[in-house]
Structure formats: structure tokens, C-alpha cells
Write a structure and sequence with these properties.
Length: 98
């Protein structure tokens, strides 16, 4: 079963900010970041229960090659992405998005 995916505006903003920062560091690195995020999102859609619960009903997958986690909730057949958060940032930032 493939789940439908809803990326909240806050998570879209997280991705956009990270993309811009990585592009400023080196041209094309932001694109690499987005590709890695897309792979992680695809994995979530295929099997969201595979990844650990990190807070109440929120699960997390780590983004390959980049120090980011994607935080999401599963309700029936829908996955809601709450945040795409740098792993060294304080966790309360994404916890307030629930």
C-alpha cells in the first residue's frame, strides 16, 4: 500500500531554507539535498511504519548524506510531514508544529 503524502507549509519552508543554504555553499549541493529528501519521502510513502517513533505519534527518518531528519505522523492512509529539521537544532522547534 502506498500512502498519500501531505507536506505541511512549515516543512516546505524548512526544505527551501536548507536548499538555499546548501546552494550558497556550493552550486548543485542544494539539488543534491532535495534529491535525498525525495528519496526519503518515497521511502516513507511505501512503508511509514518502518521508522521509529521519536515523540508521541511522530516518526522520523534521517536524510542520507545530510544532517536532517524528516518528522511525520501517519493517520490512516495519509502521511503528514511536519518538519524537515537539521539534527543539531533544538527539538522543541518541530514539536510545536503538531
Amino acid at each position: 500500500m502506498t500512502y498519500s503524502l501531505v507536506v505541511r507549509p512549515e516543512a516546505e519552508r524548512d526544505m527551501s531554507e536548507a536548499y538555499q543554504w546548501y546552494e550558497e555553499q556550493r552550486g548543485g549541493l542544494g539539488e543534491d539535498f532535495l534529491l535525498c529528501v525525495e528519496v526519503a519521502l518515497g521511502s516513507i510513502q511505501e512503508s511509514p511504519q518502518r521508522y521509529p517513533v521519536v515523540y508521541e505519534d511522530v516518526r522520523r527518518i534521517l536524510v542520507r548524506r545530510f544532517p536532517y531528519g524528516i518528522f511525520y505522523c501517519v493517520q490512516e492512509s495519509t502521511v503528514s510531514v511536519l518538519a524537515v529539521f537539521h539534527c543539531s537544532r533544538h527539538p522543541r522547534g518541530w514539536q510545536d508544529r503538531r
